[in-house]
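In response to the reviewer comment on reproducibility (Comment 2.3), we provide here a single inverse folding case reported in full, input and output, so that an independent group could reproduce the run without further information from us. The structure tokens appear first.
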């Protein structure tokens, strides 16, 4: 779980299953290591949560139109496919250790086929890297080096880490959209994720022996439609251009407050002669996760002012974060479908 889930998501899942929690993953792991007598049922629920997170957590997602009858045929073919034996498939849904990852061949490999009530997840694994920014304690340096840095209040470094990615092609039981969902943890370069997206599509086509993912949805219209729907979630980030030729990037520091209602934002809009032109949007929702817990799945649609000013602005992927499980992802997916469906 630690290898995959942001702490706010992992904390809620542990709470949901009555596991002790500390402040952050490190202190929580200390408590869990010394834990004894936890019911087998609770451990099984954690495994289910981990499996769901492999195909619904922290994803860069794109969508393809495919006729429902075709999706059904592909789904039937997939369910008859045998997952080859590999380190990935043997340990799934647990990620490989750093030592095991170092031994894996280049490329994407089929790791699992997951039938669910909503559809079938075709899970591929590969090795990727992320770059994380970490604060470095001056006490870690020699006295000579620490003296050179004594004028700095904080020192940060960039660290590159290898991780096991779980990339998914989702075949729904209902509807006419197939998802491609690639792992997109914080620190992943967008270009790396886009390359992984293309690799996942190619690997899937080779697996089924035909090219079905060809009619990719343009997701750019979501930005304006969601922003202008006052009943749709809570807008926490917005990038936009104005008729005065300026570019604005606004964020809400308190996630429970909607940027659409923020006084400075409303006042600035009122002073303009014409509507703003959004090109970047993040929206979050509050969902009842049971047991008094609230989940906050988040959708981000990121373009640029230059792209938005083009004749036919296009975005082929969005970022979906903070899902506790498949139900959260399916909710966000349903909102995407709603706003892309012609009235």
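Designed residues, in position order:
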């Amino acid at each position: 779980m630690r290898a995959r889930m942001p702490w706010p998501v992992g904390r809620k899942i542990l709470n949901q299953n009555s596991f002790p929690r500390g402040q952050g993953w490190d202190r929580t792991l200390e408590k869990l290591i010394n834990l004894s007598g936890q019911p087998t049922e609770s451990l099984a629920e954690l495994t289910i949560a981990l499996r769901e997170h492999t195909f619904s957590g922290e994803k860069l997602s794109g969508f393809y139109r495919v006729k429902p009858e075709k999706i059904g045929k592909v789904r039937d073919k997939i369910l008859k496919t045998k997952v080859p034996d590999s380190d990935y498939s043997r340990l799934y849904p647990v990620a490989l250790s750093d030592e095991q990852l170092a031994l894996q061949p280049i490329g994407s490999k089929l790791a699992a086929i997951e039938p669910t009530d909503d559809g079938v997840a075709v899970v591929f694994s590969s090795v990727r890297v992320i770059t994380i920014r970490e604060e470095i304690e001056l006490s870690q340096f020699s006295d000579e080096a620490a003296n050179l840095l004594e004028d700095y209040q904080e020192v940060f470094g960039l660290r590159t880490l290898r991780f096991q990615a779980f990339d998914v092609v989702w075949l729904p039981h209902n509807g006419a959209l197939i998802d491609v969902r690639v792992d997109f943890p914080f620190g992943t370069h967008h270009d790396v994720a886009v390359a992984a997206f293309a690799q996942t599509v190619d690997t899937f086509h080779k697996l089924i022996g035909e090219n079905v993912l060809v009619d990719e949805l343009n997701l750019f219209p979501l930005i304006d439609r969601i922003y202008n729907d006052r009943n749709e979630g809570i807008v926490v980030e917005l990038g936009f251009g104005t008729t005065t030729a300026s570019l604005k990037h606004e964020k809400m520091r308190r996630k429970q407050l909607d940027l659409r209602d923020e006084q400075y934002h409303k006042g600035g809009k009122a002073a303009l002669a014409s509507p703003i032109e959004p090109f970047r949007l993040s929206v979050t929702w509050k969902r009842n996760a049971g047991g008094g817990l609230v989940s906050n799945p988040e959708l981000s649609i990121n373009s640029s002012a230059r792209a938005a000013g083009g004749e036919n602005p296009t975005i082929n992927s969005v970022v979906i974060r903070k899902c506790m499980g498949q139900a959260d992802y399916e909710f966000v997916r349903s909102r995407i479908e709603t706003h892309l469906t012609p009235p």
